[in-house]
Amino acid sequence: MRIATIRRDAADSPNMVANDAAILEQVTDELRAASAEVIATEDSALPTEVDIILHMSRNAEVLERLRRAEEQGIKVINSTGAIDNCSRSRFMQILERARIPQPQFNIITDETGLAPLTYPAWIKRSEGWSTHKDDVCFAKDAHEAVEAFRAMKERGIDACIHSGHIDGDIIKFYGVGRRYFHHCYPDPEKSKFGLERINGKAQHHPFDLEKLKKTIFKAAEALEIDIYGGDCIVNAQGEFFIIDFNDFPSFSAVRNEAAKEIVAHIMDLKDTIR
Question: How high does pLDDT run on average in the chain?
């Protein structure tokens, strides 16, 4: 089996460049140990004589090349469709249709639409992924929400999402297909932008872990994604709400076991490709 790998651009990996590089490197080592031929490639020259392209890219030009590779019958993981589905407003709408629990949200294109909504809340860029510290902002009231949206507009962002704030424990989750699931409480001091501090120290509210696992797997199926991670909130009543869903995270908390699970998932595809 010949597999090409593509790293994530530094611009799409704020404060996580080393961790993103580390998981791809470890997966590469595990693939080679499993007798796969791995080609670490530059995104500008994708190989065509491969069975699988394993990538972490969110770059529009690279994704377009990957779409063409898919059309030629090459298996791309995660698929370009899955990457599109993880763009923020899109994944929230997909999860809504799939009846996956998440905070109530509104897509806003005019700042006047923010005033009637409930606060505190989170103001998030609507399209794409967070690459700037102000792509996700906590707003105590409508005034702060408008200021956050105006700052986004100055950076060329035309729409934002107003997402209701929920008090509770933040839980990070990681998954590979339906074969692997891991959850943990994040360290607020080691977060990408430090936003976990808003919810404070985890109170470890009891919740149904098996139900959460099944819900995350259902969400991944709706998003058509193989390798993923994200965040949810568990409130004092044990209810959970997904607040973020990402393609191919760094798995920094569980890199060793996740790399093995990713490789096992890929090797299971051996008889289905081409």
Answer: 91
Instruction: Indicate if 135 and 195 belong to the same structural domain.
Output: no
Which of the pair, 47 or 186, is modelled with greater confidence? 186
Cα 151–Cα 154–Cα 155 angle in degrees, nearest 5: 95
Q: Return d(Cα 100, Cα 171) in angstroms, integer.
A: 16
81-96: pLDDT as tens digits: 999 999 989 999 999 9
Rounded Cα distance, 49 and 63, in Å = 18
pLDDT for 181 beyond 60: yes
Q: Which domain holds residue 160?
A: 104-164
| C-alpha span between 268 and 265 (Å, rounded) | 5
For the entire predicted model, the pTM comes to 0.92
28 within 8 A of 22, measured Cβ to Cβ: no
157 and 170 housed in the same domain: no
Q: How many domains does the chain have?
A: 3
Closest CA to 75 of 50, 39, 38: 50
Model confidence at 43, pLDDT cuts 50, 70, 90, reads low
8 A C-beta contact, residue 181 and residue 213? yes
Number of CB atoms found within 10 A of residue 228's CB: 22
As beta bridge partners, residue 251 has: none
86 inside domain:
no
